[in-house]
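Morning. Coffee machine broken again, so started the prediction first thing and wrote up yesterday's gels while waiting. Chain of 393 residues, entered below exactly as on the submission form.
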Amino acid sequence: MPALSQRITTLNGDGSDGWDVFYRARAMIAAGVPVTELTIGEHDIGTDPSILRAMYDSARGGHTGYAIVPGVSALRDAVAARIEAQSGVPTSRENVLITPGGQAGLFAAHMAVCSPGDVGLIVDPYYATYPGVVRSAGAVPRVVATRSSQGFLPEGAALEQASEGAASLLINTPNNPTGAVYPRHTLQDIADVVTVRDMWLISDEVYDSQVWEGAHLSPRALPHMAERTLVIGSMSKSHAMTGSRIGWIVGPEEVITCLVDLATNTTYGVPGYIQDAALFALRAGAELELQVAEPFQRRRAIAERVLAKQDLVRMIPAQGAMYVMLDVRATGLSGEGFANALLDAHHIAVMPGESFGTSAAGHVRVAMTLEDSQFEAALHRLCSFAAGLAQAA
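Came back before lunch.
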């Protein structure tokens, strides 16, 4: 067989893709073993029936052919209005490209701003696909380390040190996996570094509707940052439309024009009936987004209550998103060791912190994606299991 390209064979670097425990859990389920899954960010409520009806009506109405590659104009207008309302930055449809989900947006953004061999910065901990998406653009990922004791917020000195020679910086706020919501001073540190280094900032804001403490601030709103920032958004988390695969990139018009060329040669756009459903969902307003977000805010309170009853497993303050990060180092195990042992002992699947980088070693990420009573029971079992490990040690 002829050789495969170096780009495709090195997407995961020299190690795993970070999903090993998840794959193990799915294999157990396929074999008939019941597993309590707290791994991926998949809503337990599903897409709202009114959105599905809009999708159905659009498809039945004939919007099943090729849709215009940049996105349906009405949807681009709606996204632009949403972003302008959030950031205060004038935004029009020419600043918006509709993409097949946020992941495709991340890939396209890095293709736009990173040349082969460039350095693309990512903040550690990071969503598991971030290093691979940087490599897929032919760039080299470099991490900005953070500390659990500081809530995993990137610090100015670390940003400055890591940014030498970098072309881009990818951030995510509200953050997956940590739940951190970057405050203004952190975003200003980021803006200062990327401005001095003349870098692009790629801001993954797919959890912008899930903020439990503070407020979401897009770095695009900071002075002189709109010209060097690409914002990634998605309907997946805000409207429980994960499988619909629809998102967007917002950025300078000249960048979007180039990205339309990329989309023409890769995805060739997003199905029109899915775009129409997204437009319906955005027009439904904030009430629908609040309905989607509310279970996670409620379960965050459950997690705080359960974790407060013991002092072995430490919960990192979760200010946003649909996860809690737990420090399990007191058990003597790594995050990966703890997650595998918990899966074996209690058939509860969580994500090891090591799946998201070295800064989260000794932690596990728990997705708040189960019905309340099941979620609470799983957390109690996790804490009891941790206590047993610590006692045995």
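The longest helix spans residues 286-308. Going to sketch it on the whiteboard this afternoon.
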